[in-house]
Amino acid sequence: MADDLSPTPSASQGASASEPEVETGLPEGYVDVGHGTYVPADETAGCESPAYIHIGGMSAEVTGEIVDQGARDFASGTVGLDDEGAIVSYTVAPGDVPTVIGDRLCIYNGIMLATLNHTRDIHPDQVLRLDPDPTIAWVPYYNPNEAGEGFQQIPYQEAIEGMGRAADAGDVDTMRGIWNDSLKVMFTNPAVIDQIQKALDSGDLTVLGQMFS
């Protein structure tokens, strides 16, 4: 991993996409969802500018337009709005499924909602963040980017989820404890360690929430 850790957008994992045609530009029947990613225009019904979750390296971003098309089976939760009325969160209801939430909210790769929120599965009453700030680092959920063969993924994920719960509770001391006791030794890139350490030292919950929650 490069030493420059400023989050840089990249095409998301977890969904099929088409590369642009060099000579003709945007392929017929496809729509640009940002960062060189193209998806079928009619894949998500009723969504003219589908949103897309991009995750790569130490960054996460949602491009496009999140639109609530209404509650339905397997996506009956509630949306949260900012002061301008934009959808920034979704509270999970019992029985909700990420792909159906994605269909409801015009998110092409809704299957990535759990990963975006640093968790393996979604659960009732969980508040999913839908507006990550691409200028703030996002710590990978499954393993550090520099992880080698045989990396212990489960302990890492448990630590990341613990960091997320503590961030949501505003408990920076617990986050520092998890970092020092278990998580820090799982990273090998000094620049990444320094970046996370500085965020914990400052206690900035906006940054820490983006990183881990």
Could you describe the 3D structure shown?
The protein is an alpha+beta fold. The protein folds into two domains: 1-138, no CATH class; 153-212, no CATH class. The protein contains six helices and seven strands. It has helices at 98-105, 113-116, 153-168, 172-183, 190-202, 205-212; strands at 30-34, 37-40, 52-56, 59-63, 78-81, 87-91, 127-129. The strands form three sheets. A three-stranded antiparallel beta sheet has the order 5-6-7. Strands 1-2 form a two-stranded antiparallel ribbon. A two-stranded antiparallel sheet has the order 3-4. Helix 3 packs antiparallel against helix 4 and helix 3 packs antiparallel against helix 6 (205-212). It is globular, with a radius of gyration of 18 Å.
Structure in a nutshell:
The protein has six helices and seven strands.
Please state the structural category: alpha+beta
Portion in helices: 25-40%
Overall average pLDDT: 89
**End-to-end Cα distance:** 23 Å
Low-pLDDT segments, ≥5 res = 6-16, 19-24
Strand order of the largest sheet: 5-6-7
Largest sheet: 3 strands, antiparallel
Number of helix segments? 6
Q: Radius of gyration from the CA trace?
A: 18 Å
H and E string: EEEEEEHHEHHHH
Please tell me what the overall shape is: globular
Number of strands: 7
User: How many domains comprise the coordinates?
Assistant: 2
Strand content: 5-15%
